Amino acid sequence: MCLCHQAAGGFERFTLQATSPHEAITELDHRYQTVKKNSIFVDDRTFPNAPASNSLVMMRSEVMDRRKLFVGTFYVAALSGCQGFLGRKAEVAGDSVDSDSSVVFSSVDFSDIRYQPPTLFTTELTEESGTWVRRFAGQAAPQNLEFLNRADGTWVKVHDFYPNSADPFKINPNLTLGPGGFNLAIEDRAQAGIVPDSNLIPWALNMIPFGVAIDGVILDPSGPWFDGGPADPNNPFDRQCSGWEYDPLFPIIGDLLGVVGAVGGHTQPSGLFHYHSYPKLMIANLKKSLEGTAQQNQPLLLGFSADGYPIYDCMIPAAATQKKKKIYFFSAYVLREGARQALPNTNPRLVPPGNYDGTYVQDFEYNPQKKMALIQSELRTRGSYRSMRAAEIASGAAEFRLLDRCNGFFDAELILPEFPQPVYAYVLTEDWPQIPRLLNFKPSESFRNNIIPLDARRGPGRTAFYDACGTEDPHEVHKLKGRERY
Ligand SMILES: [Zn+2]
Question: 31 lies in which domain range?
Answer without folding.
Answer: 13-103
